[in-house]
Amino acid sequence: MLDRELNLWLFFERATTHIADVPVVTRDPSGAIRRSSYGEVARRSQQLMHALDRLGVPPRAVVGTLAGNHQEHLEAYFAIPCANRVLHTLNPRLSSEHLAHTIQAADDRALIVDADRLPLLERIPDALANVSHLIVIGDGQPSPGLPTAIGYEELLAEQPDIYPQPEIPERSALAICFTSGTTGRPKGVVYTHRSSVLQALTVSTGAAASLGPSDCVLTAIPMFHANAFAMPHATLAVGAKHVLSAGSFDPASFVDLLISERVTVSAGVPTIWQLVAHELQQHPRPLPDLRHILVGGSQLPERLVRVFFEDIGVPLVQGWGMTETSPLVGMAWPKAEMIGASDDELLAHVRMRAGLPLPMVTATLRDDAGNELPWDGSAMGEIWVRSPWVADGYLGGELADSFEGGWFHTSDSAVGSPHGYLTIKDRRRDLIKSGGEWIASMDMENAIAAIPSVVEVAVIATPDPRWEERPLPCIAVDGDAITIQQVRAHLTNQGFPSWQLPGEIRILDQLPKTSVGKPDKRALREMFAADEPAVIAAASAPTAH
Fold first, then answer.
1. Residue 266, domain member (yes or no)
2. Residue 150 lies in a domain
3. Which of 108, 112, 230, 378 is the most exposed place for a label (fewest CB within 10 A)?
4. Distance CA 391, CA 389 (A)
5. Strand pairing category for 33-37 and 23-27
6. β pairing state of 506-508 and 432-434
7. Structural contact between residues 51 and 161, judged by C-beta atoms closer than 8 angstroms
8. Residue 365 lies in a domain
9. Does the bond joining 29 to the residue before it have cis omega, within 30 degrees of 0?
10. Which residue range forms the structural domain that includes residue 85?
């Protein structure tokens, strides 16, 4: 066989030849549409490669990006690794403390920054001590105290647009992504060229995103979040049209973009699709080209799955993964023998599951002693997973015990079905232990989310002197108020035993979010750790377990 290193050039070189004419479209925050092509992106990416050389950024040095979903960020996605440097996508939603930590832990030597995100760096000048170059996209200059800035377009304009392909071993670092910091300081994960190529190829298959040259892809996943589900690489690999939407998320504009660009595949977290569903219910319009939507980050509410499939006519396909898994390791597509099954059967056995493990992914369920558990639909254990694109450790060697024995111990508690599908029951830290028995907060959240007036819900554990912990649903509603009696009656109708029923609820205008848009349970626990509820409805104490 003609052996070649599995590095990003295998995808990137196609952008200069076979797919040079394929469109790349950016919707700017102003609403303006910019049209380009992979050929143009490749030309400018190679100019950026030369620019990094000219600036003296050493090979294998880390270059950070603090940017939105737009063409320039896509150019950096390709240019930095293809020039034998390491891409570090910075999360603008982190606290200043955590943002500073990630810059220092990754040892960023240059930063490419959107002008409107410069204030984030101006709050943490000490974190930029090792940053020699600040490259600014758009109009704006940093305040004194930050490295001298140069404009992105000014930098590219002086450079050649053909870059000689360097020798990059496939196990070299391609990118660094950090976890969202919901359980402490963000932890860094290093993706290699090999792991990223294998992940992208697998994501493009029918087992995952099901992409091809005829597709048009628009993701609502920030490019700083776990390489945007590997969609930029997978889309490049197959030569699909790529649409990017920069700026704050606006559901009406996003729907317009889906329609006008004839998007066939999209992806995002459940919160995004709840907003899109609301927009389409308020202002109905068809999405004739959209084949399916990939959803990850948190459990899909059943009501949302039904709205999209039955009313909008587009299936939501649940995925599972995390930063440590590059991120995708499972997608919930039905098997061949399920063809012809009713919608309710597919919902129960496939669509509400976290996913079927992808090719080259091995997943097992383990008890607290590390013993394997059966996939029988009832035994719950921690998911251990391994794959060529699953990390073998954190940057700096943190929490080494999470990777013992050649497996990543995910801290996700799940049940495996006899059909091979995983159902995530909870993060182990979010399970509620009441009277010696476990309550899965995600099951309760999914049930409560089906109540029509509920917009968002997160269930947390609160201390209880008798039962150790009790569930506390924190709910945001739209329109009619909701009472504890309604919640308890609904959960009873959904089959929850009386001992699991909450004794109180909290009503909020909106739930606090993590840096990747999930409900922030740690913030909710801190919020309600000691105070009396602002809005609460009490019920009788639970009966004996």
1. no
2. yes
3. 378
4. 6
5. antiparallel
6. unpaired
7. no
8. no
9. no
10. 1-192
Give the total number of structural domains in the chain: 2
- Is the entire prediction scored with pTM above 0.90? no
Q: Is residue 201 part of a domain?
A: no
Going residue by residue through the chain, which has 545 residues, state the pLDDT in tens, using 9 for 90 and above: 999 999 999 999 999 999 999 999 999 999 999 999 999 999 999 999 999 999 999 999 999 999 999 999 999 999 999 999 999 999 998 889 999 999 999 999 999 999 999 999 999 999 999 999 999 999 988 888 898 899 999 999 989 999 999 999 999 999 999 998 766 789 999 999 999 999 999 999 999 999 999 999 999 999 999 889 999 999 999 999 999 999 999 999 999 999 999 999 999 988 899 899 999 999 999 999 999 999 998 788 888 999 999 999 999 999 999 999 999 999 999 999 998 999 999 999 999 999 999 999 999 999 999 999 999 999 999 999 999 999 999 999 988 899 999 999 999 999 999 999 999 888 888 888 888 788 888 889 989 999 989 999 999 999 888 888 899 999 999 877 899 999 999 999 998 989 999 999 999 999 998 877 788 888 998 888 754 444 444 444 454 44
E strands of 206-245, at which residues? 216-219, 241-245
Q: Which residues participate in catalysis according to the annotation? A: 179, 324, 433, 438
